[in-house]
Amino acid sequence: MAPTRTRSLLPLLLALATVLMSGPGDAQISIFPKEAFLQRGTSLQVNCSTSCNQTFTLGLETKLPKTELASGHNWKLFELTDIEEDSRPLCFENCGTIQASASAYVTVYSFPESVELDPLPSWQPVGKNLTLRCQVHGGVPRAQLTAVLLRGEVELSRQPVTGNPRDLTEITVTVLASRDDHQANFSCRTELDLRRQGVALFQNISESRQLQTFELPVTLPKLDTPVILEVGTQHLVLCSLQGLFPASEAQVHLEVGGQRLNPTTTGSRDLVSATAPLEVTAELEGTQQLRCVVELAEQTLEAQETLSIYSFPAPTLTLSEPEVSEGGPVTVKCEAHGRSLVVMLTSAPAGPRSREIQLTLNASSRLPSPEIQFTLNASAEDHKRRFFCSAALKVAGQVLYKNLTMELHVLYGPRLDESDCLGNWTWPERSQQTLKCQAWGNPFPKLTCIRETDGALLPIGLVKTVKREMNGTYMCHAVNSQGNVTRAVFLTVLYHHQNNLVIIILVTLAAILVPMATAIYLYNRQRKIKIYKLQKAQEETAMKLKTQATPP
Ligand SMILES: *[C@@H]1O[C@H](CO)[C@@H](O)[C@H](O)[C@H]1NC(C)=O
Ligand SMILES: *[C@@H]1O[C@H](CO)[C@@H](O)[C@H](O)[C@H]1NC(C)=O
Ligand SMILES: *[C@@H]1O[C@H](CO)[C@@H](O)[C@H](O)[C@H]1NC(C)=O
Ligand SMILES: *[C@@H]1O[C@H](CO)[C@@H](O)[C@H](O)[C@H]1NC(C)=O
Ligand SMILES: *[C@@H]1O[C@H](CO)[C@@H](O)[C@H](O)[C@H]1NC(C)=O
Ligand SMILES: *[C@@H]1O[C@H](CO)[C@@H](O)[C@H](O)[C@H]1NC(C)=O
Ligand SMILES: *[C@@H]1O[C@H](CO)[C@@H](O)[C@H](O)[C@H]1NC(C)=O
Ligand SMILES: *[C@@H]1O[C@H](CO)[C@@H](O)[C@H](O)[C@H]1NC(C)=O
Ligand SMILES: *[C@@H]1O[C@H](CO)[C@@H](O)[C@H](O)[C@H]1NC(C)=O
Ligand SMILES: *[C@@H]1O[C@H](CO)[C@@H](O)[C@H](O)[C@H]1NC(C)=O
Ligand SMILES: *[C@@H]1O[C@H](CO)[C@@H](O)[C@H](O)[C@H]1NC(C)=O
């Protein structure tokens, strides 16, 4: 420290001496250039000249390394090298007894050695202040050095760089981070404006740093999946989160009972959603946690859901015989498996014929038990009767059902009674009729109706024209594998009564009209005879009179 101080003191003392010792009219000493502005580390040539016309000594006083380059009779040219900082070189002379000196102003400029933007946070929350810090080292003259903080090409702040150039100078600016700042490049630029000195404007720019901004909602991810799942089924687990930015960079993890699912994630605008198929395996039976973790900007948001995973084998419904002959016993059995219980075993009537018949089950069969059964004697009405078995399982406070139905088939002989086949038909001749005759049975019976007398077939169905020949007694015979049945059908065709009536009317009319006509005729004839007889008598009288006048 001490030598430096003395070195820097020397020019000062000399300057003081010059001021004290030089006077007007004395020997002239000059220095060229009087002012210099140069880049640090470069060299400068200084010409000291004097007008002293006596013996003189001429020199240059500087703490800078110097070399004498050339000299004339009244001048000396020196070179100053390694000019690191501002200095005031001093030309001095001893002209006779007079000492004189002249000094020059050497101003040094230098570019900043480093311009650096402090690292940015890897993720900056949107809506929070972000302070950009620019560190400038070196760079003189400071009065002409400014720092500009940039976002891309846009100037955020322009500030003078002050302080000691040997120390790091920090320039800061605070910006409110927005979504638009995501992936924006920030940088810091220094400007050394030497245009005043006729040099130029020098810029140094830091490496740019890219910012990542993010925003997370206050809400939690939304899980969308049924909470009660059956072993052996497949489901799609959906997890979504609205209001996060940048959604496309969010990661979603889904797991069930510690097992990672393999989700497909899509992010658009500010919604991220992930779907993953979930295979409900037997190992998962019980309660499991479904977790959805959304990860963005080293932050996580998590949602959980408790899944109740159950296995519920369907009940089995068995009929001791799915097809039974009429009267045969049938045992209906409904059996539940696993932890489920049979809650109901009922039957529903089959066709319209058995509408009124309701199978009455023992009341105890309505109580839950692992197995319920009953036996019935099959009747024709039980044909196509459906049995319904329902098992229930309680999972997470909810009752789940599995139902089964089965149909009973009863083989029964043909049925052919009055309601199926009317025994008496009375039809007018030439009318159109429909003859209904239907036998029942399982298997479906074959029905034939034959007239006893001549074996003619009864026309079943639509009869276009009723003919009197159809009249007669028919024997209807229904047969299937279970038996046979016969029923007589009387078909009366009306045609006599109609004809008799006409005849009766005609006969009656004849009976009335014939005597009347006869009477009228006889009367008229009698009258005509009388008139004729009178005419005859008159003619005869006239003839008699003629003959009397002319005798033959
Ligand atoms: C130094 O200055 C003197 C006086 O101005 C001049 O005559 C001389 O040529 C100069 N020397 C150089 C090398 O410029
Ligand atoms: C020196 O020069 C000055 C003018 O510059 C002159 O007046 C003076 O007489 C000179 N002296 C000698 C000794 O030559
Ligand atoms: C951000 O900083 C500015 C001043 O630079 C201040 O006015 C504002 O309240 C700050 N905002 C937040 C969210 O901190
Ligand atoms: C930031 O710079 C990187 C490369 O350095 C470039 O890929 C990116 O597009 C720039 N960002 C903007 C917003 O210009
Ligand atoms: C600063 O800029 C100048 C020219 O503008 C260049 O010569 C110099 O090397 C730069 N300095 C750094 C540290 O990049
Ligand atoms: C149902 O069966 C139970 C025994 O299993 C019996 O005690 C009860 O009387 C029966 N009820 C009816 C309505 O048949
Ligand atoms: C079924 O028929 C048998 C005789 O064939 C009879 O003993 C039994 O009581 C009947 N069962 C029912 C439920 O009617
Ligand atoms: C199964 O049966 C139960 C009654 O035991 C009923 O509540 C439920 O709706 C039925 N489910 C189906 C799918 O038919
Ligand atoms: C058909 O009707 C007649 C009377 O018209 C009656 O005597 C006879 O018993 C009836 N037959 C049947 C099978 O109903
Ligand atoms: C028509 O048939 C009935 C029996 O079905 C019989 O009594 C009657 O005599 C028959 N009439 C004729 C005209 O054959
Ligand atoms: C009809 O049934 C009786 C017994 O009921 C049987 O003897 C007869 O052979 C059966 N007829 C036909 C054609 O099946």
From TrEMBL:
Pfam families: ICAM1_3_5_D2, ICAM_N. ICAM proteins are ligands for the leukocyte adhesion protein LFA-1 (integrin alpha-L/beta-2). During leukocyte trans-endothelial migration, ICAM1 engagement promotes the assembly of endothelial apical cups through ARHGEF26/SGEF and RHOG activation. It is found in: Membrane. Keywords: Cell adhesion, Disulfide bond, Glycoprotein, Immunoglobulin domain, Membrane, Repeat, Signal, Transmembrane, Transmembrane helix, Ubl conjugation. PANTHER family: INTERCELLULAR ADHESION MOLECULE, INTERCELLULAR ADHESION MOLECULE 1. SMART domains: IG. Belongs to the immunoglobulin superfamily. ICAM family. GO terms for cellular component: external side of plasma membrane; extracellular exosome; immunological synapse; membrane raft. The keyword Acyltransferase does not apply. One of its GO terms (molecular function) is integrin binding. The gene is Icam1. This is Intercellular adhesion molecule 1. Residues 1-27 form the signal peptide. It comes from Nannospalax galili (Northern Israeli blind subterranean mole rat). GO terms for biological process: cell adhesion mediated by integrin; cellular response to amyloid-beta; cellular response to glucose stimulus; cellular response to leukemia inhibitory factor; establishment of endothelial barrier; leukocyte cell-cell adhesion; membrane to membrane docking; negative regulation of endothelial cell apoptotic process. Residues 119-204, 319-411, 422-494 form the Immunoglobulin domain.
